[in-house]
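Review form for a predicted model. The reviewer records the input and the model, then writes brief findings.
Reviewer: anonymous (R2)
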Amino acid sequence: MSCFPRRPRFVTALFLLVLLTGFEVAPALAGLAPSRISGTTAIASQRDADLVMAQRALEHKIVAQKLRDYGISPQEAQLKLASLSDAELHQLATASAGLPSGGDGLGALVTVLIIILLVIVILKLLNKDISIK
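Model under review:
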């Protein structure tokens, strides 16, 4: 303790004492946040929910490409979708629930490449040799 002059030690200790005391006596305010409706939804029935699921499936890249390969335009697919019965629409919606949620794997590839680069940089910083045989 003798390496620090007496005056800066006293000022630092006094500052910390005032700061920590201020934290102790400051009132803590807490409460519940009021709930509110975040927005209105257009899904009023099971058919509407199934219709939304089927439309999202039609927007998927792979499904849209397959429909184009069979010669069906997106407008024709939407018209056919609207004319399906409730049971057929529900069956289509449950079948489309297994589709991947999106992406073509590019994000996963970029992540793997970044991890590999980080490992290489860390090994170089540690002066380790990297040799691929």
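Findings: The first helix runs from residue 6 to 25.
Further findings: The mean pLDDT is 79.
Recommendation: see findings above.
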